[in-house]
Amino acid sequence: MNSQSIHAMNQESFPECRSQFLGQGVVLLLWFANIYDMGGGFGIKYASFAVALLYLTLHFKPFPMDRPTSHLFMFLFLLWPVLALLHSLTAGAELSLAINQMTAFPASIVFFLVIQSVRPHYALSVFLYTMLSLAVIVIALYLLMWFTSPFADIFMRMFSSEAHGYIGYRPFGNIFMPNVYLKATLFLVPVYVYFLFMAKPIHALIALLALVVAFSKAGFALCLLFTLYFLLMHRGDRRYKAAVIVLFIAITPLVLGFEQFTEELLRSLTGEAETAQVRIGYLDSLYTMFGENPVSLLIGQGPGGVFYAQNLGAYVSNIELDHLNAIRKFGLPWFLAFTAFVLTVSYRLFRSQQAEERALGLALLSLFIAAGTNPVLLSPTFLMFMAMATDFYWRRHESVR
Asked: Which residues are listed as membrane-spanning (predicted)?
């Protein structure tokens, strides 16, 4: 190979390297913003997508899918949501609310296009370790609040807006206990599942502890469920399984020590807890709404649509039963197609020979289940994770390090 050929190759590779380097920075910004500012209270979340759009104008790469799959992807995440938006606006929905509730779809497409410039494993690693840093902060902040540290007061003021979640003291029985529940807390469930199946018990333990101190009952219950599957059904190293059992035995006294947490968990499972009663009330209200207006079951009310919650005596636009909320907004046919898409990606990853892909498939499944217990199923963060898992499958040959 002569010097002119080498020079030509360098000329071609430099723009590619620059594009990948900038892409890595944008992916890092997107994950950081949509995890630490999931509710948009700081405005970083919106700025990150503006940066991503600017990046795409300079470094655009096409979809890696075949044509039928890309058409399905665009139908589910662009065409149908836009039609649903027009439907809700025609029916009198509030414009700002309607747009706010459907922006997750174009945001996920923007993210999907951005990650074409980086290796699939990079986008996954950024998500995992950004979430792990959040878990460490949740645990540390909980401990600081126990000891009434002035640093805890600083964080409580910084995250005082409901857009960030809740940081404060909640009554449990006759006592007040620290409660650190940030918007992205439920996304610790797939982090735990991924690290559990990737034989990284310390990482998994950090995610699990954060869910416990956040009093995430649904999150902890799902982690326990996937741990039982891992111990009973998963083919793995017996020594590692023994280590997982030891870790759970070690953490059991801590969980049981949170007497209020265990009582609330049991009350939630039996439907006696206050939050469970609220969800049951939503279920009754949705049943009434679909009975009175069967057409809404097929085409949905659209983003921004409201319905009367009998248990609250008020009209609401979001509920914590997010699978049913998605049906209410976009209709049952769309939700079935959306669910089939998610489960297909999860199953194909799970059937892979690569441990990392199997772990990601189970992580996606766990998140899909967890997201139904809080209004995060149609959030940018969930759809970004799903887009990342989809990209990981379609470009899995690039994920080998």
From this structure: 42-60, 72-89, 95-115, 122-145, 181-199, 205-232, 239-258, 331-350, 362-389
